[in-house]
Write a structure and sequence with these properties.
Oligomer: homodimer
Number of strands of chain A: 12
Helix content of chain A: 25-40%
Structural class of chain A: alpha/beta
Order of helices and strands of chain A: EHEHEHEHEHEEEEHEHHEE
Strand order of the largest sheet of chain A: 2-1-3-4-5
Chain lengths: 235, 235
DNA sequence: CGGATTTGTAACAATTATGAAACATTTATG
DNA sequence: CATAAATGTTTCATAATTGTTACAAATCCG
């Protein structure tokens, strides 16, 4: 047996009995299984630690579809494979057409055997794709509402959509956000973001601020100017 | 009798009686036999441990053909010989034309004696071709969907087809994949992949990235460039 | 208010990074 | 040794980034 961390699976479904049956069977296969009876409940968990999410499309207030969108829009969870569970009469095309990045989907009523097979299949496909210490890792993600900065992958999501930031823009934004609530002088910004590489004018910052503001859309107004002092990221 | 691990054989067929008969007879010959009544069920097993798979072509949802393709496409199982069982009227050419790497095939209705003979024959041909500790071995395989990197055999499969990667290409890809989700600076890449052997230019990485991208086909776009930062393997 | 100062913005210029291809060199292999 | 394969380098074209400037707009402060 190789050294491996147990794969954690989350089941999100409002049918309690079904959940229990699946949980038992999956645990029997060696997986670590958690259950959430609603999307709301699921969202209270630290979803990063799951290797796979089994998601019922038809649920209460937040539908499975909405939840899937949220998962895919959140940089911390967007890589987690999702298997949709759908009622039998749901149109095939609908699911696929949703373009939600579902890795698989299963029709109800499904057999336990079938579910396990799908789970294994998906996990086999995506094995090695999760962070090494998913649950213990320092996130390295800055997030302000719908504005997300992945400091490792150097990318920025605005309400779920990736925004291309240049290196300087990215570093500038990261600097401001990580000093949220403080006004940073141009000197400080130059020192940290521009390092001591080359000598650039103060005004360079201003221009980059402008570019940043437009790129991050509605969050642009979070970058505030304090005349005579510098810039900051507001609460 | 020499020291040998019992050879495990998997029968995948939906005719229960037939399976049992075969199982009894093969066990009588000293083999260890498991049965799966469908491809789905078979896929829940750890297939690596089998020395041979007897596969019925005509089955339920996942046909035997599809399953064989999956087996051959998965680097963990691609070495396992498969004997196809076909209905009598199946065209010979069809089987061979499938180019599935079947090691043999048998027409139904077949005699038990016949099956055993084929099994022995195939196992004789392929003996020594399986991993030493097939079931206990640490896989050491990186897999992203249809892209598979066998770190031990130093080979790469793209959707089941072997792709020849040079040493540097292989190591570079392995490095990127094992740091999936992070952007690796050229410095980091040089340090790890090029070690401190020789001094090479940054641009060497770029060129190897390009070569890699074209070689791994559609997965090439998984290798992302973050201008000014470096390269990374995306989710 | 009104001039001085600071900041926003757009356009431009300069620089740098990257991809692709071709070429050169080194290394493996028989 | 000869050949092929692998690897590194150079070059060119292009794309992307970054910095500067000029001017408009906003802000500051008497």
């Amino acid at each position: 047996m190789n050294i491996m961390v147990t794969e954690k699976i989350l089941i999100v479904d409002d049918e309690e009995t079904l959940c229990e049956v699946l949980k038992l069977n999956l645990e029997n296969e060696g997986y670590d299984v958690d259950i959430a009876f609603s999307a709301e409940q699921a969202l209270t968990l630290d979803l990063r630690e799951y290797s796979l999410i089994l998601l019922d499309i038809m649920m209460g207030e937040i539908s499975g579809i909405k939840m899937a969108k949220m998962l895919k829009a959140d940089i911390k969870t967007s890589h987690i494979p999702i298997i949709f569970c759908t009622a039998k009469d749901t149109e095939d095309d609908m699911i696929m057409g949703l373009n939600l990045g579902a890795d698989d989907y299963i029709m109800k009523p499904y057999t336990v055997r079938n579910v396990i097979a799908r789970v294994k299949s998906v996990l086999r496909r995506t094995s090695g794709s999760k962070p090494v210490n998913a649950s213990a890792e320092k996130p390295e993600i800055l997030q302000i509402e719908g504005l997300q900065l992945d400091l490792e992958f150097k990318r920025c999501l605005v309400d779920g959509a990736e925004i291309k930031l240049t290196k300087k823009e990215f570093e500038l934004l990261a600097y401001l956000i990580s000093h949220r609530g403080k006004i940073c002088s141009r000197e400080q910004i130059l020192a940290k973001v521009w390092s001591n590489e080359v000598v650039v004018l103060d005004r360079t910052i201003d221009v980059n601020i402008t570019r940043l503001r437009t790129k991050i859309g509605k969050y642009g107004s979070y970058i505030v100017t304090r005349s005579g002092f510098g810039y900051g990221f507001s609460y």
